[in-house]
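ok here's Holliday junction branch migration complex subunit RuvB, seq below lol
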Amino acid sequence: MNWDDTPTDTAAGTEAGERLVDAGAAGEDQAIEAALRPKNLGEFVGQERVREQLDLVLRAARQRGATADHVLLSGAPGLGKTTLSMIIAAEMGAPIRITSGPAIQHAGDLAAILSSLAEGEVLFLDEIHRMSRPAEEMLYMAMEDFRVDVVVGKGPGATAIPLELPPFTLVGATTRAGLLPPPLRDRFGFTGHMDFYEPAELERVLHRSAQLLDVEIEPDGAAEIAGRSRGTPRIANRLLRRVRDYAQVKADGVITRSIAETALGVYEVDGRGLDRLDRAVLGALLKLFGGGPVGLSTLSVAVGEERETVEEVAEPFLVREGLLARTPRGRVATPAAWEHLGLRPPQNAGGSGGQQGLFGV
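and the structure came out like this:
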């Protein structure tokens, strides 16, 4: 099981954080997930290509007796970016310093962190794309030359004092790699993209987590939870803990397929991993607007949610599942959406023309 600590980058963070299928983590979740994290690359499940490539980078650095190259990890929340950063530090036998882009709003903030690093230390910078531009420009020199210029004073009397830094490894994580400027992206020696997990990989994650949590889970129970976890280990582990609660209170504590189905039904997570918000968006699109196309603002009003909540929280998964499409004319439901909700598209649906143009049917 591998996941990172970053809450979803959304304006609707509070509402998203309350969803069982949200990939962000906060509070008690972080403490529990920290205990379940793999401690080395051998324990890390999934991401085979990234893991193999990273293993070569770290082994070569250890053989040279040098610090590892700077690493950039990109991918959706909950896939293991923070976990990998901690593994990098562990594999290199180095301490790790953790901070985030939003916490660094001034170049002085970054200078203070960099100047306190020990030689070989790993600096994990989460949501690196949200760092301020002045700090970003300072980071260029720090990554390349292990040096920063600290400006003392203001106006004509300002003086730049060069500050030498010990060699360190920067591990940057981002959920939006496209927002990183090319000069910053090019300074990373290794870039790894984290993909969503296959159900079989999530089953391995769940069996390992169940063992650590001292929970008995049957293979079909793990398969049921994995199929509803949206390809994300963090969500899989969160669902596991909720199913564990149900099995403990309502059954004999053993997680079977039937127990998992019933428990996840209680928590309103359906067979494809859609929750109440996801189904509300699809339901409004199909029942009120005939499948679309419909504008985002109108759709948001129909479900009683903020525009950002629908766009940043619900839509990405619905699009990835092939249930909804974004078009220049608005949001359009796919035939799979009608089928999933058990509805029949009307003969003269307002969105039929948009769907025909999009899907050619």
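fwiw Confidence is low (pLDDT under 50) at residues 1-17, 349-361. kinda neat tbh
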